[in-house]
Amino acid sequence: MTSGVGDSSGSAANASLLQAMGTRRRVPELVDEGGHGSDFSDGGGGGAAVRTPSSSSYRRRMVWHFCWLFWVCWGLLTVFFLFLLLKYTSMTFYEVVTIRKQNDFLIPPPSDESSINDNAAEVNNQSLEVWRKPSSGDYHKCSHRLSKETRRGDGTNGYIIVRSNGGLNQMKTGISDMVAIAKIMNATLVYPYLDHTSYWADSSEFKDIFDSNHFEEVLKDDIQIAESLPPEYASVKPLVRPPVSWSKPSYYKEIIVPLLKKHKVIQFTQSDSRLANNNLPKAIQRLRCRAMYDALRFTDKIQTLGMKLVDRLRSDNKPYVALHLRYEKDMLAFTGCTHNLTAEDAQKLTVMRKNANHWKEKDIDGEARRLQGGCPLTPREAAIFLEAIGFPYDTKIYIVAGEIYGNHGISTFQSTYPNVISHSNLATKEELEPLKNHQNQLAALDYIIAVESDVFVYTYDGNMAKAVQGHRRFERFRKTIVPDNRNLVNLIDKMDNGMLSWEEFSSTIKSLHANRTGAPYRRVPGEFPKQEENFYANPLPGCICNKQQGLT
């Protein structure tokens, strides 16, 4: 064969080739033997170029078609990317974040299998990290009684009647203080009366919530306990007085004991925060813990159902978060926090606060308080916080709270975390029937589930948050995420205003809370008791010991 073919014969050959191959066209292969110069000429190295079996006009047409096809494809790709760019820039900030979070649209796919494996490992590591318990080091609980601290004899200076105040956890910490005060005063403690006039209006008595036999058994070597006043004092009119808040033992020994000896019966009208957090004898601090974490055990009815619900939550061998979402009507009215509420809902809270005689603060700037970190997180803020920390969207979230206030209730939280559970949908109607209309008994149920949870998160530093996190510290520092509400809400506002990307926000939140997971640290006395960390929120020092140091 010759190296060139005429135009007509080339066209005929080309037609035959097309007929044989259908509509597919094969671009001829051009080979440059010498490695220099034009693809169509001698390479300059002395060797002859291998030419294609096509005419020069055919080659020109192929080159022209190739260039035309290239520029058409380039134009189509350009139009496509311009369309994406216009679509992206026209989105709102929330739409972009939603796409990023839900579909990973803005994140390029991994280029190879190793990248996929690396990314999966990173996701798994992040998922494991949110559940990882903080190290407890050499610390362990130590609320035991030393032999020298055992009560001797049956002598008593008189009887203390306690009118507990507040909800379940406020009463629980108050009763624990009263046990220690009875020890300080060498007094007999009568079964405390529970508060029936608080917001919940629960008619439960002490024995309806707490195991009274266990209470007496645990404390029998510490103080004397009586179910009621003995006959000889039943008709005695007690001296009624509220103890001074955050008092030292000297107050009770020097001021109250002489009054008790004189009147024989004293009725304390307030029970919460009646002992100082710090600088008390070690024996008294350990006694407070024995009362709080052991003696005040719930009744068998409540305890059994609580543990049954914990087992039910873990039936699929997956962990769960207990979230104390304190976005309830009474707390919002008390704090004056109305962020994201309608004007009508906010007005209802204002009326409720002004009608509550025992709430001293009436005129509150709710937004200013929120920016200072003094408000419960809204359901939306709580969801954003958990998401930023890294909890997967399918995480089981047990809500430790009553009815969530506002028109949207829990729905804004559920839009991110749909797997929301509470005692009302975890327990059967028959199981809850004995506790019906007894909010403090239901709160006791929630307390058990919160203490036993894999992670406890709270949205407001109230009485339950303090009681549960302290109990979890006592039980070898179970993971408790302590939110930095002040920084959190300010960062959320910045993100909402487009000043922070989701990645920047999430990274900052993780960094802020890296050391706020319930690990051991010592409680530090402050200038004013009200500004100190609460003893029951962190009983170290008090009833948590270090193996190297002994009793703290």
Explain what you see.
- The protein is of the alpha/beta class and 552 residues long.
- The protein has 21 helices and 12 strands.
- The strands form 3 sheets. The protein has a 5-stranded parallel β-sheet, covered by helices on one side.
- Helix 18 runs parallel beside helix 19.
- It is elongated and about 125 Å long.
Query: Quick one: how many beta strands?
Result: 12
Low-confidence stretches: 1-54, 87-123
What general outline do the C-alpha atoms trace?
A: elongated
- Residues in helix, %: 40-55%
Lateral strand order in the biggest sheet: 4-3-2-6-5
Q: What is the quaternary state of this protein?
A: single chain
Characterize the largest beta sheet: strand count, sense, and whether it forms a barrel.
Answer: 5 strands, parallel
* Span between termini: 103 Å
Radius of gyration: 36 Å
Number of helices, where a helix is a run of at least 4 consecutive DSSP H or I residues? 21
Mean pLDDT, all residues: 84
Structural class: alpha/beta
Q: Strand portion, in percent?
A: 5-15%
List the helices and strands and how they pair.
Layout: H1 7-21, H2 56-89, H3 93-103, H4 113-131, E1 139-141, E2 159-162, H5 168-185, E3 188-190, H6 206-209, H7 212-219, E4 224-226, E5 239-241, H8 249-263, E6 265-268, H9 282-295, H10 300-313, E7 320-324, H11 329-335, H12 343-355, H13 366-371, H14 379-389, E8 396-399, H15 411-414, E9 420-421, H16 423-426, H17 429-432, H18 439-452, E10 455-458, H19 463-474, E11 480-481, H20 485-496, H21 502-512, E12 544-546
Parallel strand pairs: 2-3, 2-6, 3-4, 5-6, 7-8, 7-10, 8-9, 10-11
Antiparallel strand pairs: 1-12
